[in-house]
Amino acid sequence: MDKFLIVTNRDKDKDLKITRDIQEYLESKGKDCHLAVPLEGNDLLETGFTDVTQLQEDVECVIVLGGDGTFIQTVRDFAGLDIPIVGVNLGTVGFLAAIDVESLYEGLDALIDGKYTVQHRILLGGEVYRNGRRLQKSIAFNDIVVACAGFSRLVELKIYVNNQLLDIYAADGVIVSTPTGSTGYNLSAGGPVVFPETQMMIITPICPHSLSARSVVVPSNAKIRIEVGRRRKTQKEEALITYDGQLVRELESGDIVEVVQAAVQAPIINIRQKNFCDILRDKMKNG
Fold first, then answer.
1. Which residues lie across from 89 on neighbouring strands?
2. Which end of the chain has the lower number of beta carbons within 10 A, N or C?
3. pTM
């Protein structure tokens, strides 16, 4: 790789010391390296590129400095551009980052020398409908969550898979997770951990008022429909939908959320020497 763009969480690297070190190291190796301000939405103007076409031509790799939140936001911002993304962990857990600060230059050398693989991870596409009219459409890298809007209340959610009723949950909500997101909120809610390169979606209820409700794994080509029921007559906004915990919209009783595998995938660079089992043990402090 010869052309790089660095996206930095400036709360994690406030004086841009690590960012500048990476830029200087790559340029000392004869590589092109640009810096981006923190991205908001799909605003790429402050990267120095005038349009998406120029960005695709002049960037072969996006290096993300920060934690998992910064990485996820960058994946969302660059979705559909087919530019590989690699993370440098400046956060805490850092499941998604392939490079630790302690092995920074070793990781950069691997990028330069082509000693890496690219995994194409699935994304979720979510749509919100009210009275047959689409209100919202977005994507998620980790998960789409429909959760109760009030404090200490349950929401009724009817879950359909390929138009067949799966279950009706009286719960705090439900998580639809990608394999990548299985180690996030899904794991905290008692859902299974799956290998990130697998092709599936995970449906996990959040604190269900039931002894039998469990996570369900469905094929990645399945169509999931979530119907929001009413638990309290005086409450109009029954639930919220979030995409990767970063985009929120209020839902009303009768709203429908449809979740499918997105048409685009996220190209994620892997240069780790450890396998997923090693990473899981290290990150979860079980080893």
1. 66, 100
2. C
3. 0.89
